[in-house]
Amino acid sequence: MLYWRLSGFYLFFFASVGLLMPYWSAYLDSLGFSAQEIGILMALAMATKIVSPNIWGWIADKTGRRIRLVRWGSFAAALGFCGVFYDTTYGWLLFVMVVFNFFWNAVLPQFEAITLSHLKDDSHRYSRIRLWGSVGFIVAVTLMGWALDVYGVSLLPAVLVVMLLGIWGVSLFVPECERKVHQEKSEPFFEILFNPAVVALFVGCFLIQSSHGPYYTFFTIYLTDIGYSGQLIGQLWALGVVAEIGIFLVMARVVGYLGLRRLLLLSMVVTTVRWVLIGLYPDHLGTLLFAQILHAASFGMYHSAAIQLIHQYFSDSNQGRGQALYSSLGFGAGSAFGSLYSGYIWTVYGAMYSYFFAAFLACLAFLVAWCFVKELDR
Fold first, then answer.
1. Which residue among 143, 182, 340, 376 has its CA within the 20 to 30 Å range from the CA of 97?
2. pTM of the predicted protein model
3. How is 99-119 classified by DSSP, letter by letter?
4. CATH of 7-175+187-372, one of 2.60.40.2470, 1.20.1250.20, 3.30.470.20, 1.10.3720.10
5. Alpha helix (H) ranges present in 64-89?
6. How many CB atoms lie within 10 A of CB 207?
7. What is the spatial distance between Cα 117 and Cα 84, in angstroms, rounded to a whole number?
8. Residue 32 CB: number of other CB atoms within 10 A?
């Protein structure tokens, strides 16, 4: 059944995210790297998202063979990551992570386009498929949190290789989607791109992903320094994604009531509140639990609204590049900037101020989106 094939890809892909995002910085910390070094390493690796998705998006739009690119990319990512077993010096790990991320970061945008093309006019069902990615994240982050206490973080690279091979294996069973034959000339890509609503959406995505910098790069180290156990940290990460699953389950219904624009704006307001709470009360478990539940909006609601707006803005022949730009500007440039500023502010001013700056960025994203983002009729 196509539903399970598409869902299986998200399951394995976000299981690998559930290992990389919360624990890779902890693994680097165990090797003796400083906060600034970790920030730079994470930023340069994420910066590959600025380039690689756009290269692959252009190829996919020209050839129409998205799933073939996904298969080759996922296999190359798994192979490239194996370089971590060769050496653990800073320069070598930097090289390995750039190579790995060049392929890994290009895979998801093309698979998003594949999923939405298979769904056709039922794009509102996307969240029901994407939620299996959240399930994979929860399982991975919870089990790794337990393994962190029992076996230590040195186990992480081997488990990651297994997940990366799982992504490739599932992709072998996903069929290529039919490419639409256009009777009319498609709207030029750059004409769509420079629409003020589209520009504003991409700027908002950049700012929101930048605001996640302290969370994705240092949240595990932050809580470890305060004294939380690895198991509890894993459960806190998992709680955020459980909340994310909840929003994915109801998004199709909620979109009908509120619309994509309102949901996007609401997610940005909630994100601002979340970073303030984490910055002020990291040692207050009740507040931290509430802040993690807000992940439902700061990622789940935001991502569902943003990706459907991208699908709405860009015509079928431009879908690959549209999704690639969303990935490269948000998850690429935004995440890279987030890692850089959080590493610097963390070192110079302290953890709390890095979260305050993140809240400022999320608030700025809201203002940009409120002024310019709108839904288009397509």
1. 143
2. 0.74
3. HHHHHHHHHHHHHHHHHHHHH
4. 1.20.1250.20
5. 66-81
6. 26
7. 36
8. 9
